[in-house]
Amino acid sequence: MRSLTCTAALALGACASSGTRTPVPAPAAVQAPAPRRVPNEIRWVRTSAEYQALARQAYRVAEERLPELARGVAAGTWAVILDADATMLANSEYQRRRALLDSGYTDPSWVAWVRERSARAVPGAAEFTRRVHELGGRVAIVTNRADSLCAETRENLGTAGIAADVVLCQPGRESDKNPRFVRIESGTATPGVPAMRVVAWVGDNIQDFPGLTQQAVRNDPVDALADFGRRFFIIPNPMYGSWERNAEQ
Q1: How many other C-beta atoms are found inside a 10 Å radius of the C-beta of residue 139?
Q2: Residue 92's closest CA among 242, 238, 201?
Q3: DSSP 3-state helix, strand, coil percentages of the chain (rounded to 5)?
Q4: Which pLDDT does position 151 carry in this prediction?
Q5: pLDDT value of residue 36
Q6: How far is CA 24 from the centre of its chain?
Q7: Over the chain, what is the mean pLDDT?
Q8: What is the predicted pLDDT for the residue at 1?
Q9: pLDDT at position 33, please?
Q10: Coil, helix or strand for 113?
Q11: Mean pLDDT by groups of 10 residues along the chain of 249 residues
């Protein structure tokens, strides 16, 4: 009798256990993350007709002004100073790559990009520098690329069709370009290049122009911007710049 009771109890337990077993749900399908979109400001620089038109327009106006700006100055004794990145060399491919990684600028990624030497010329840039040389002027590039990357920068300028007579990179932490402007004008920039009369500047950042900053323009926009279209010429760059530190309004 005891044996039968135990057997019955075990059977009931087994039935109860099997009756309350919870089915294991199938694993949910893993959804692939939506592809990242390149921000509009980068897409505009890379794909828009308007960007190409504005860049070429800036260089064309500068080119038309050159004969007057250099009038009466002996050939070989005057120069145009230009920035490199986003003025002479197009870096939107670097910006696109970083955007697709959901990341911004980093020193290692920037060094790797510069060492690729694959940046193309900004629209109108190579033609403008050829015109400077035809008129007897010199092309001086003043960039805040590190001195350690200057050799790669010169090589990339050459492959982009830009013949630069002087390339001054950033020495140490001297991000202010004004001392380098002075060295070009005084003839102390590089051996073999005499003192130059600088007749024009081209850049994409307000700090590419002598004495100008975001604050200087806010303080007195009329006087600070008076030379633009005359001897200062700016290339549009909505991707990055000193303007990023401005307070929102």
Answers
A1: 22
A2: 238
A3: 45, 15, 40
A4: 98
A5: 81
A6: 53
A7: 90
A8: 41
A9: 60
A10: helix
A11: 41 45 62 77 98 98 98 97 98 97 94 98 98 98 98 98 96 95 96 94 98 97 98 98 94
Per-residue confidence (pLDDT) for residue 249, from 0 to 100: 84
The set of residues, in sequence order, having a beta carbon less than 8 Å from that of 230 and lying 6+ positions away, is 65
CA 188 to chain centre: 28
Residue 20 CB coordination number (10 Å): 7
Rg (CA), the chain: 31
> What is the C-alpha separation between 87 and 142, in angstroms, rounded?
11
Judge whether 190 and 168 are in contact, CB under 8 Å.
yes
> Which sign does the torsion angle of CA 139, 142, 148, 153 carry?
negative
Cα 168 to Cα 191: distance, rounded to the nearest angstrom: 12
How many C-beta atoms lie closer than 10 Å to residue 187's C-beta?
14
Q: How many CB atoms lie within 10 A of CB 174?
A: 14
3-state secondary structure of 170: strand
| Helices and strands counted in the chain (H then E) | 10, 7
Residue 166: Cβ within 10 Å count: 19
Rounded distance between C-alpha atoms, residue 163 and residue 201, angstroms: 16
In sequence order, the β-bridge partners of residue 198 are 79
Tell me which CATH code domain 40-240 carries: 3.40.50.1000
Spell out the SS3 assignment of 184-218. HHHCCCCCCCCCCEEEEEEECCHHHCCCCCHHHHH
Long-range interactions of 131-135: CB distance < 8 A, separation 24+:
131/63, 131/66, 132/66, 132/80, 133/163, 135/66, 135/67, 135/70, 135/75
Tokens of 167: 């390339």
Instruction: Give the Cα separation of 78 and 72 in Å (integer).
Output: 10
